[in-house]
Amino acid sequence: MLPKIDAVIKIGGSAVTNKSEKETLKPGPLQKAAECIRQCHDSGITCVVVHGAGSFGHHHAREFKINKGLPIALSGKDRREKILGYSLTRQSVQKLNQVLVNALLELGVPAIAFSPGDSWLLQQRELVRGPTETVGRLLKHGFVPVLHGDLCMDDILGFSILSGDTVIKKLCSSFDVKRVVFLTDVCGIYDRPPSEPDAQFLPSICVRADGTVTAGIKTSQSQNDVTGGILLKLNTAFDIVKQSEGRCPVFVCAVDSSDAPVVISTSDVDSRNVHCTKISMLT
Questions:
Q1: Which of 161, 175, 186, 235 is the most exposed place for a label (fewest CB within 10 A)?
Q2: 213-259 pLDDT, tens per residue?
Q3: What does pTM read for this prediction?
Q4: 233 is in an annotated binding site
């Protein structure tokens, strides 16, 4: 039997950092996220936190073209610069991880940093080894593991980027996850970027058995996002719902919403009563 997780909580990089400015926090939303997790932990919710890199990591990754890997033919100064870029990118992501862990610790949450880049392995950007045994042991003893998008060794490319959304999919395949909650900088999913005129909020999205969905959604991506933007997040959500055959719904809500703790801690959320988007199986 798979170990149980009540909620996997994804804190979006855009929600707690200013992606347009390198290594710049949004202190208010970050504190809101930490407080939300505290409330859930204090109420007995077993949770794992995963956060995006936001402005911690994406700028370095773009500058050093990290997602192109480490070409075998690269040598001399170019190779040294690429390796330095890898180190700087990982250090930047771990800075944000430590900030979030510290915020949780200050609230009395027994958070433990867990960086996938230390042991997870990719092959041509696809995850081939994602050992989660340590996550299970931490949960067993009452800790709150805090994972993140990271840089990992890649058997083909030398190294490449592992997105936080892929981390979530791995957790959902390794544990009995009751729900996944994305805390973002907007209140849920819209049929187009919410900055566009006439964007319509979608309180619910249903996933069919073949993986298609009942809503038409137009997406966009930040120029500083090197991991796929909102499209990858949506596809991750749809895959989780499909692979769990509807047992694990996905919710998207604003990080600073008073409804966020309710969405995380309540098994059967009615999206008509809380302001969020619920992604579930079409029945």
A1: 235
A2: 877 787 655 544 444 457 777 888 999 999 999 999 999 999 999 89
A3: 0.92
A4: yes
